[in-house]
Amino acid sequence: MFNEYSQQSFVQKSVIGELFATKHPLHLSLILEILRKLILNIYVLCISLFLMLLVASAQGQQRISTEQYIDTYRDVAIKKMHEYGIPASITLAQGILESGSGNSRLAQKANNHFGIKCHKEWTGKTYYMDDDEKHECFRKYKHPEDSYRDHSLFLTQRGRYSFLFEIKITDYEAWAKGLKKAGYATNPKYPELLIRIVEKYNLSQYDNKNYQKTVEKPVRVSRKKEIASMTIDQFKKDERYPSGRQLFSNNGKKLLIAVKGDTFNNLAKEFGIYTWQLYKYNDLNKDYVLKVGDIIYLEKKKRKADKQHPGHEVKQGETIRSISQLYGVRESRIYKMNNLPDGIQVSAGKVLKLR
Questions:
Q1: Contact 354, 218 (CB under 8 A)
Q2: Bridge partner list, 313
Q3: Which of the four CATH numbers 3.30.1020.10, 1.10.530.10, 1.10.10.10, 3.30.540.10 does domain 66-207 have?
Q4: For residue range 140-171, what is the model confidence (pLDDT) as tens digits?
Q5: In this structure, how many other beta carbons lie within 10 angstroms of the beta carbon of residue 87?
Q6: At residue 250, what are phi and psi to the nearest 5 degrees?
Q7: How many Å is the maximal CA-CA distance in the chain?
Q8: CA gap 110, 88 in Å, rounded
Q9: What angle do CA 204, 143, 199 make, to 5 degrees?
Q10: pTM
């Protein structure tokens, strides 16, 4: 293609040169026409390259399997079942069906796993895309768990779904048919699709309120080492900065503990770095406001934890980010090491791999 294009360009340049040499009366209009064609060719080439990059990017996006989706959101669905009385099997089946196991555009862009539209009462963020109609408004969430919670609220706070809660929590077939009857979905085969998913992946086992998840072994360490989690008290005291501030080190990286009056701007000036570096090193957005006691790294965190800490058992109230700060490991690496979708928050008791 490029050889042909080069030959064409050479011919066009020769024609232009000849027109100038002969002072052809129509040379200006002909030159403009040739230039127009050249610009058009360049435009088409640029569009082609852009589309190639777009396709390559889409192909490179990591997709998760249905089994991975279930492992990731099973505990969330069980928790919502105990809180709101909706079978975990139905919640998971709906999430799998509506979000394509977390791979749909709506799930990826808006963390919306149940296809819940805005409706009049919604005041949160929104995401627009074509569905039953063009440019429909969907709810956008900060985390996937927020979508699961909103799904539970959606079913419990609307009168048309109230009859569902008279059905046994273990009767997933009646729940699937009831959702269609209440108008949750327009697809006439919606109940059959849900039932098929529940049975294919044995999701009904999670509807048993006495269900105990199988012990996962993501980290090959003794139970003692899993329980012996890192604490702030284990941070090593480092140098005292000229300003008088005490610095610490953890996993080989310098850090400080935020005190009253600290801001990112003040810290950046004090340590001679940029504010964007502080945000990046600590996996924070620019709108985050420092709180007393926050762990703030002054260097980029490591890809894995110290050898003494191959894993961590999640405690109530902990997040992936708080664990990331505690061990001095990049948040993105914790997600990757544990095959977790970005943004997911794991339940208490789960053991995370840190190396």
A1: no
A2: 351
A3: 1.10.530.10
A4: 999 999 999 999 988 988 888 889 988 999 99
A5: 27
A6: -150, 130
A7: 94
A8: 22
A9: 15
A10: 0.48
